[in-house]
Amino acid sequence: MTAGVLVTAALAAGCGPQDPGADALRQPSARATTAPASPAPSPTDDGKGGTGTAEPSPSTPPPSPSAPPTEPPTTPPTPSSPAPRPSTAPPPEVLMRTGSEGAQVRELQARLRQIGHFGRNPTGYYGKVTADSVRSFQAKRGTEATGSTDADTWRKLLTMTRTPTADELDPPTERPVAEPDERCLTGRVLCISKKSRTLAWMIDGRVVSAMDVRFGSEYTPTREGEFPVYWKSRDHVSTLYDTPMPYALFFSGGQAVHYSADFAANGYGGASHGCVNVRDRKKVAALFDQVKNGDKVVIYW
């Protein structure tokens, strides 16, 4: 092989490093050209190199594989508020009901009496009669007829009535006092008439106060005669019947003059177990404070 052939073969192999200086002499500087370089052949689907001939570039670049559409950021839904319930105002405050006692009950009764809803003298005790009167008043005004006096009922009643006078709040006894027994004309005496159903507290023949009373039934009659008050018990409760006997003035065994809530509520529809029931709490409370042990009790027809 001639030297020329060997040189030619070595140049054709081209596997050694090229001389950068020789390259620079043979090729124009890359910075000097403004033509874009031809794109490198794209790999084929199976990963092998493509053919040496570059495919012409399309005028419009092929669409890049589209990324899945981006959902617009969503604001997490605000938890919906529960549907508003129908607004129900709290029920009005109950001021008085069955079993209530005191000055406000007495005023309630006096005001109801002014407009024809209470047919008795005020007693200061809220019993069945008072509850029925309140119920009647409520029904006539188109409100719920509960029989209890709530704040709305009280307001309506105040607008329809005037302030009761002292006589309206504490009127004279419903029943005229009977002619006193002659034993009642001297000293300090609880003069009690079964005929007129009244008690007159008398001092030396003068009536200091009077009040309605009721007595025992035919099976438990109230004893008649003259007796001394031998024991006073302000907050007494019957040990035999387990019932309250406030302001008790005992005069004969277990029989006493005392306040009766049942009498205040139901009038003469009932009877005692032998005691003398008083229905006006205010009056019997004052009587209790004035009467002394040893004062007389006279019960007669």
Automatic annotation (TrEMBL):
Composition bias, Low complexity: 28-37
Domain of life of the native organism: Bacteria
Gene3D superfamilies: L,D-transpeptidase catalytic domain-like, PGBD-like superfamily/PGBD
Residues in L,D-TPase catalytic domain copies: 188-300
UniProt xrefs under Pfam families: PG_binding_1 (PF01471), YkuD (PF03734)
Entry's Gene Ontology molecular function annotations: peptidoglycan L,D-transpeptidase activity; transferase activity
Compositional bias segments (type: Pro residues): 58-93
UniProt record, GO biological process: cell wall organization; peptidoglycan-protein cross-linking; regulation of cell shape
Record flagged with keyword 4Fe-4S: no
Keyword annotations of the record: Cell shape, Cell wall biogenesis/degradation, Peptidoglycan synthesis, Transferase
Listed InterPro entries: LD-transpeptidase (IPR050979), LD_TPept_cat_dom (IPR005490), Peptidoglycan-bd-like (IPR002477), PGBD-like_sf (IPR036365), PGBDSf (IPR036366), Transpep_catalytic_dom (IPR038063)
Family annotation (PANTHER family): EXPORTED PROTEIN (PTHR30582:SF33), L,D-TRANSPEPTIDASE (PTHR30582)
Full protein name: Murein L,D-transpeptidase
Organism lineage string: Bacteria, Bacillati, Actinomycetota, Actinomycetes, Kitasatosporales
